UniProtKB/TrEMBL annotation:
The protein, known as: Zinc transport system ATP-binding protein
Coiled-coil parts of chain: none
Keywords for the protein's UniProt record, in alphabetical order: ATP-binding, Cell membrane, Ion transport, Membrane, Nucleotide-binding, Translocase, Transport, Zinc, Zinc transport
Tree of life domain: Bacteria
One term of GO molecular function: ATP hydrolysis activity
Domain ABC transporter: 4-219
Organism: Yoonia rosea
PROSITE patterns, per the entry: ABC_TRANSPORTER_1 (PS00211), ABC_TRANSPORTER_2 (PS50893)
GO biological-process terms attached to the record: response to zinc ion; zinc ion transport
Amino acid sequence: MSLIDARHIEFSHGGQRVLQGVSLALDPGEIVTIVGPNGSGKSTLLRVLIGALTPQKGAVTRQEGLRIGYVPQKLHIDPTLPITVNRFLNLPHPVDPDAAKEALRTAGVAGLGTQQMSQLSGGQFQRVLLARAILGKPDILMLDEATQGLDQPGSAAFYRQIEAVRRDIGCAVLMVSHELHVVMSASDRVICLNGHICCEGTPEVVSAAPAYRELFGTGTGGALALYRHDHDHGHDHDHHHHHEAAE
Ligand SMILES: Nc1ncnc2c1ncn2[C@@H]1O[C@H](COP(=O)(O)OP(=O)(O)OP(=O)(O)O)[C@@H](O)[C@H]1O
C-alpha cells in the first residue's frame, strides 16, 4: 500500500490555477524527486501532500498514522542569538539526548551538538535540519529545495547523505529541486511538473523525454552520467533477459 496517494489534484491560489490533474503515489522506501521550473507548483504540491493546503478538486489519502518529516528550504536564525545545535533540536519539544545524538549521526553531523548554530557551514546547517526531521521517526522525508545555497559538490554530498538516511531508517523521500542532474542521480523516480505532470520515470527515462527536454533543454545528459553512481539495478537486467528469452 502507498504511504500517500494523491488523485487528480487541482489547486488554485486565488484565481490562479497552479495544479491541474496531478496524481502521484509514494511507496515505502522510494526516493522520488519533483523537478520543474520556477512557479510550476512544486512547493504547492508538497503542501497539498502534507495537508497544509486543501485542494479544490481531487483527494489525498495518507496511510493511517503517517509521519512526515519536513526539511525546509532554509531557516533563518538570528545570528546574534546564541543557540547550540542541541538546544535547537530540543525546540519546540524536549527530546531524548540519545535520540538527538543518534539523529545527528544519521544526518552526518555526529559530534556537532555543542556547536553554535551560527557557526555551522551551509551543508552542516542543512544536515542539522535533516537531523531534526529524522527525530520524529518519519515514514516520509520531504525536502523542499533543501540544497539552496550549497555549491554543486556540497549538494551532491547532501543528496548522498539523503540516500544514506534512507538506508538507515528506511523512510521514503520526496524532494523538490531544480538542480536537475545532481538530484536526479539519487532518485528512483523523477516527476517533471509544470502545473500538470509532464513526464515521469527513472532519471534516465525523464532526462530523455521530449517534454522534459522542452522545459530544460538537452544539456543535462552528460552531467547526469557524471553524477550517477552505482545503484543495484540487477532486476532490470533480469527483466531484459526474460524478455529476450520470450521472444
Ligand atoms: N500563498 C500564495 N498565494 C498566492 N499565490 C501563490 C501562493 N503561493 C504560491 N503562489 C503562486 O503559485 C504558483 C506556484 O508556486 P509554487 O511555490 O508552488 O511553485 P514552485 O514550483 O515551488 O516555484 P519555485 O521553484 O519558484 O519555488 C506561483 O505562480 C506562485 O506565485
